[in-house]
Write a structure and sequence with these properties.
With 470 residues, the chain is mainly α. The chain contains 21 helices and two strands. The chain binds coenzyme A (COA).
Length: 470
Amino acid sequence: MSSSVLVLRNISQRLLSSHQNTLVPLFPLGCRHKSDVNLKDVLASLIPEKQKEVAEFRKTHGKSKVGEVTVDMMYGGMRGIRGLVTETSVLDPDEGIRFRGYSIPECQKLLPKAPGGEEPLPEGLFWLLVTGNIPTQEQAAAITKEWNERAEIPNHVITMLNNFPDRLHPMSQFSAAVTAMNSESKFAKAYSEGVNKSKYWELCYEDSMDLIAKLPTVAAIIYRNLYKGGSPPEPIDKKKDWSWNYTTMLGFDNPDFVELMRLYLTIHTDHEGGNVSAHTCHLVGSALSDPYLSFAAALNGLAGPLHGLANQEVLVWTTKLQQSLGGEVSDQQLRDFIWNTLKSGQVVPGYGHAVLRKTDPRYMCQREFALKHLPNDPLFKLVSQIYKVVPDILIEQGKAKNPWPNVDAHSGVLLQYYGLKEMNYYTVMFGVSRALGVLASLIWDRALGLPIERPKSFDTPHLKKLVGAQ
Ligand SMILES: CC(C)(COP(=O)(O)OP(=O)(O)OC[C@H]1O[C@@H](n2cnc3c(N)ncnc32)[C@H](O)[C@@H]1OP(=O)(O)O)[C@@H](O)C(=O)NCCC(=O)NCCS
């Protein structure tokens, strides 16, 4: 665990434990009674400490070097350049993601669950991402309550969604709806009225909470318009948690599916700061575009086949495989099919990663869910067989730096099993979850006063000159 994570956790635990008895130093907007189950109040107490920590760190180590940049890195998608600070999660190439220092199995164990449930509530993970602390049951419940209260979406967004043609991809509909919801942005309104910079984080927080609350309804309308004849989703039920409401609004009621959704919406939230969606949200937000605009930009990145759309691609590819090879498939048939994919110049979707060098723990926890709930499902068996065969082939081909499966190799089979078979829709669900990570980061970007992002670029002649090339 990194020392900064430890420091933040220690600070926040200290503040939380002292919270019952003492006044916290900063009040958020308005004069609400502050409380340790209110995320904004807790955040308000953490921010000054973190601001101080970063200011002191920069004062003493601001000129320290953290790496070097080579010409290959510049042409190679900036791979390996240490150029971003993201507080919410760190990705280890071998171990996978840690959310504020906690691995996925630790989150599964420690985060609050729904009554009778075994999987973590995304509400709890959001609290963890924002504060660095594992929340209590009460704190997670307070998030559920707030999101249920903030879930209403503006009429013009419903009208817009209802008028989109069926051929418009669900991700395009999703990002357009999120952009259009910036009519509700408290950040944009306050900025236009000249709000003081010190209040940016509070407005960003308010917009982020509103936006996260509204996403399941927007996403469910898209699903129902495209695949369920346009019947409106069930209204939000204040007794249900965020994932449960989303599942109901989509039109499903199997409690095991609700559990899957809690897990799915937890593990897709965050993958440190350099991935396309997280980096895009951070970049666009650095121009002080409001959280709706910043997150819509992130969704457009997530819609790319090398990023979030890979979960759709995996199912498309696996379905083609089933169609061309039939039911029972031998390992040799599978190998031939995979080699044909590679020889035709395509990637094997769901395999490889820019940072990871081992099997993605997000793949493993979905596999464990499948082993528990659907061990005999034919598609799950096929996905397991593919897992046995693909890595050796990618190693033999010798191109991919990571031959192991990522998160997208497994999510589709689980959704199929519970009846959500429309694979074009899968990335929307990824997007609903990703909001939690990138918006938690965006709040901290504004709290730490990070400036507009503007790295230096060169053209090839200048770069050649710079390195003394002929
Ligand atoms: C994720 C991904 C985009 C990472 O890209 P990257 O960091 O450039 O990966 P690498 O450095 O390992 O790529 C080196 C080469 O191996 C290839 N490669 C990587 N993963 C591959 C895969 N799953 N199948 C076939 N070839 C692959 C790359 O296309 C590249 O080929 P090139 O030299 O001809 O351009 C890449 O692994 C990929 O396309 N995977 C499939 C899509 C996917 O699952 N995306 C979701 C990621 S969470």
